[in-house]
Amino acid sequence: MRRVLSASARGGTSDEERTPALESRDSRESRESRESRETLRTEFPFELPRGYVDDDGTVHRSGVMRLATARDELIPLRDDRVRENAAYLSVVLIARVVSRIGTVDDIHPGVIEDLFASDLAFLQDFYRRINAEGHTRAAVTCPSCQENFAVDLAGGGRPGES
Question: From CA 123, how far away is CA 65, in angstroms rounded?
């Protein structure tokens, strides 16, 4: 007959004998882990400087860009248009991560091609900020008083509006 020793007889502690400090540390780590998962921001609103003009002539300025995945950066490298012209990479990549511009939610390279150059440049910079730098703030200088400050590019309004 085998004899099974209790946890305390083996030198360990049973669940009932666990110290409050250990439970506190475990629950704190679990809570912090849960909180960090819950607060990861993956979508960022933006406001285009000029706006996308659809086939009906409607201008769409507000949109949403999501964080890029490794797949988002790898898949465009297989695209024939990118192989022929490396500059087209940003068009395909931006089309993969922009989920909406105004009421247009079918975003594809053709939509990005039809953007004004200033809007494409804005989205390229926005992509870099949220994926490489982890934020949407930009350092700017007031043209009147030369004071330096930061603006949040994902803010609701356009620069200069209140």
Answer: 9
Contact 62, 70 (CB under 8 A): no
Judge contact between 91 and 38, C-beta under 8 A: no
**Cα distances (Å, whole numbers) of residue 27 to 22, 23, 111:** 9, 6, 48
Predicted TM-score of the model (pTM): 0.62
Q: Report pLDDT digits (tens) over 105-132.
A: 999 999 999 999 999 999 999 999 999 8
- Cβ neighbors of 89 (< 8 A, separation 6 or more) are 76, 77, 82
Per residue in 63-84, pLDDT tens? 999 999 999 999 999 999 999 9
Q: What DSSP assignment string belongs to 10-77? A: TTS--GGG--HHHHHHHHHHHHHHHHHHHT---EEEEEEEEEEE-TTS-EEEEEEEEPPPHHHHHGGG
Tokens of 138: 């930009």
Cβ atoms within 10 Å, residue 12 = 10
